[in-house]
Design a protein that fits this description.
Layout: H1 8-19, E1 26-30, H2 37-49, H3 63-69, E2 76-78, H4 90-99, E3 111-115, H5 123-134, E4 140-146, H6 154-157, E5 161-164, H7 170-179, H8 184-194, H9 198-206, H10 208-225, H11 229-239, H12 243-265, H13 276-285, H14 288-306, H15 311-326
Parallel strand pairs: 1-4, 1-5, 2-3, 3-4
The chain binds zinc ion.
Residues 50-52, 58-59, 61-62, 64-65 line the site of zinc ion (ZN).
């Protein structure tokens, strides 16, 4: 079983829960992208399916564990997303509702449905699932992963046990990446950008596109420091229209301004952004209030992108707003 770093307390709670036989049927694993929420959901699933668990923990070797990890277990469903925004449709929720009443045929006698990356899950979809979560068949479990538990309706949250994933320390991050077999140099580069976020560090090493987005975020921060609106526009334009790329750049930019605000108060504070040098220079030129206003604008921009507003339009507007705030 792949080790999950930095979340010993959570794993301990899950082990104790399984050992005592009081397993939660609906669970939300939340945390930032790359923090290991899907790994935690897979771990919990393996715990439930494992043929010979050790003190509540999955053995990692039996057929059940191996098929859970390779997502090929016949009674574990990774619920499919649909549409341009990759959401969960009402039709999908209805299909899960009827499938959940078909009894499982594995030794553990359980069925698990995993809803991965629930971003702004449609209210109608949530209401369709609510009935099922309120009165689920005793063998069925529903696991959700999301950035925040508040992506869900209060009625759903109240029916779920919610677990937050913590980020690792940089040292734990290095250990996890070494275990994946990466080289020291690439590990250092990745950790300097994504610190204790193992998932993002690993993606940074593997995915050239993410490395390009980090470079774009650095270019973007340089343009802001130079108060160069044209440069900022060009950097945003180069991000393209792919929503995942936009989300990454907005999130990295948000962390940059968060660091700038923190460094303004304490220049030795721990940073979380991919370009701490730029954050340090920004901290000399903007106030915490300006950083907070930019944070709000970035959230608003991401919200518009999620609601299908044209990406170039949103980014052009954001660029103008950011310039107005920093100048
Ligand atoms: Zn096992």
């Amino acid at each position: 079983m792949k080790k999950i770093y930095g979340n010993d307390e959570l794993l301990g709670t899950l082990n104790a829960m399984v050992q005592s036989g009081r397993t939660a049927q609906s669970v939300i694993f939340y945390g930032e992208t790359g923090s290991g929420r899907f790994s935690a959901a897979t771990y919990y699933t393996a715990q439930l399916m494992c043929q010979s668990p050790v003190e509540g923990a999955p053995c990692g070797c039996c057929t059940a564990c191996r098929t859970v990890m390779s997502l090929s277990h016949p009674d574990v469903t990774l619920v499919p997303t649909s549409g341009k925004l990759g959401g969960y449709s009402v039709e999908t929720a209805r299909a899960v509702c009827s499938d959940a009443f078909v009894k499982p045929n594995n030794r553990s006698g359980r069925k698990v449905y995993i809803f991965r990356n629930c971003r702004n899950m449609d209210v109608r979809t949530q209401n369709t699932l609510l009935k099922l979560i309120e009165e689920p068949p005793e063998y069925a479990l529903f696991l959700f992963t999301a950035e925040s538990k508040y992506e869900f309706l209060p009625t759903i949250i109240s029916r779920c046990v919610c677990f937050g994933l913590s980020l690792c320390t940089e040292e734990e991050s290095r250990l996890a990446l070494r275990e994946e077999g990466y080289g020291e140099e690439e590990i250092e580069q990745a950790v300097s950008c994504f610190h204790g976020n193992v998932g993002m560090c690993s993606q940074y090493i593997m995915d050239e596109r993410l490395r390009r987005l980090v470079d774009l975020t650095k270019a973007l921060s340089e343009s802001i420091i130079r108060k160069d609106e044209y440069g900022l526009n060009c950097a945003f334009y180069s991000v393209g229209s792919d929503r995942e790329s936009v989300r990454n750049v907005l999130s990295m930019t948000d962390k940059l301004f968060r660091d700038a605000a923190v460094l303004a108060k304490d220049s030795s504070a721990r940073t979380i952004s991919c370009c701490p040098d730029s954050a340090a220079r920004l901290s000399q030129m903007i106030s915490a209030y300006q950083a907070a206003r930019i944070h709000y604008k970035l959230e608003k921009a991401w919200d518009a992108v999620q609601h299908n507003v044209s990406v170039p339009l949103v980014l052009a507007g954001l660029c103008a707003e950011m310039m107005e705030i920093v100048c």
